[in-house]
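Render Putative Cytochrome c553 in 3D.
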Amino acid sequence: MNARVTGAVLLSTFFVAAVGSGSYAAGGNVAQGKVLYTNLCLRCHGVDGKGDAYMKFNPPVADLSAPAVQSKLDGALMKAIHDGRKDSAMGAWKFVLSDEEIRDVTTYVRVLGSHTNRKLP
Ligand code: HEC
């Protein structure tokens, strides 16, 4: 088996293990995260996180379900949520959310990344 195949097998094993056990990255409360997301983020990022809600901006709203976002570490996503993005519509949520709430909503963002494989809670 070459290295690429081994890597893919290892990755999918990890993915199945993570989803199958019901644990999510970022370690937050997924139900609480969904409530926060629905109330605060959905109007821009959309129900599926694809950034196709009715609010349009330049630069465009990030597709949170995309590999480009999901491949980032939890810390990077939490920083983007905490501090916002300069010169964009993505505000700094540190003024609204506690660190724990930012963790919860990040956990839900991970669910958006896996929604094609499983039903949303
Ligand atoms: C007013 C519209 C708006 C709202 C509300 C909003 N976002 Fe965003 N978000 C954006 C835009 C626009 C970007 C892309 C910014 C950029 O291009 O740098 C973005 C980017 C992000 C990113 C970075 C993605 C990456 O590429 O790393 C994350 C994570 C994120 N948003 C999560 C959230 C969460 C969680 C909430 C709710 C707490 C939220 N956003 C609310 C508009 C919004």
